What we know:
By secondary structure, this protein is α+β, with helices and mostly antiparallel strands. It has a domain at 6-207 and 270-275. It is built from 11 helices and 18 strands. Strands 1-16-15-6-7-5-10-9-2-3 form a 10-stranded mixed β-sheet, with helices on both faces. Strands 11-12-13-14 form a 4-stranded mixed β-sheet. Strands 4-8 form a two-stranded antiparallel ribbon. β13 (247-253) and β14 form a beta hairpin. α6 packs across α8. The radius of gyration is 21 Å and the shape is globular. It starts with 5 loop residues before the first strand and ends with a helix. The model has no long low-confidence stretch (mean pLDDT 92).
Amino acid sequence: MPATTKQLLCLSDAPSIPLPARLGPAHQAACMSIIDETVHVDSTAAMRYIVDAPTPAVLNRNLREGLHEFNKLPWEDRAFLRARRLDNVFEMCLKARESEEMLDVDVVTWRGILTKIMTGQTLNLNVSYYRGVLYMEEDSTVRQYDPNTECSYMGHKFETFCTTRPDYEEDEDKVDMHTLWTVAIKRTLGDLKVLLVGEVDCVKAEYAANPCPENYVELKTRRHEMKSTFPNRAKWDMQSHLLGASTIFVGFPDSLGTIRGTQDLAVRDMQAVQYKIDWGARVLQSLVDHCSKNAQTEAGRLKIWRVEVQRKTIKIGALKTGEVYRLNRGGVPRSGIVPISFIASLEVRRALQAQQERLNALL
């Protein structure tokens, strides 16, 4: 954390917003396929469909098939590293068909960040405020490691067994860690309009005719001997609920990696944990209120605020010049955490819109 920080919010503080803070309907505003490190906006090329009968497709299949060969690959091909910076999201916001709707929000962030806030996990964020929007990403100055490559492999192997990409011929023995299909979900949280971006494992067949979040399917695995308990169920439900998914398909491998059973879980109603959603709304509103009052440095650049999220408290402090340099060095030019190219594109767009409005007024 920066040397100068302050406590912004405590769970015991009197709420400054009306509660309960309801989550509005989830609307898919855009999607993107990431293939060979290239972003394809409004593309379903990387999207996968769950097979018609997933249980027979996975039962008695071994999730460790091909693991020995996989472990011979270079580390960068084996590691599953989550995107922490919002660069792909900025690109999607500019290029999507519903670009203007996506930019008409109060907060833009990853689904995983809001999941962690609402489920009481600890994390450090970097945030900037630009043109009425709070942009939030995880602190990327700490190198990210995948603590269990085998576990990630088995999860992706499960996906290859029970899903398909109809327009692509795939080698079932090959596990691809880097082809992802990601959606941008717009919904309200209390009085805030929020854009949440997250990966979707697969979709139901009905998605083709009705591309809406209720047709998303999340995939999970759980050790067979522990199939009667779901210690991560609260997290599973929250992360699925935030994107609007309705179904979680779970496979139960034994100690050798062979699937011995499956289960369909309906995403549970969140009314019982409304207090977690309320806490998420309070956190976002407090950050919007704080950062909007002093968004720029004296030099006119966007500030970066380091936010420490704990289960019951939020602390915040503005990064100093040296800290900003260490965060942004070696990457694309930025103001705060926002790429300069994104700002320039928006400024050109706004200028053209203003010019068109003046012309329309003269007609």
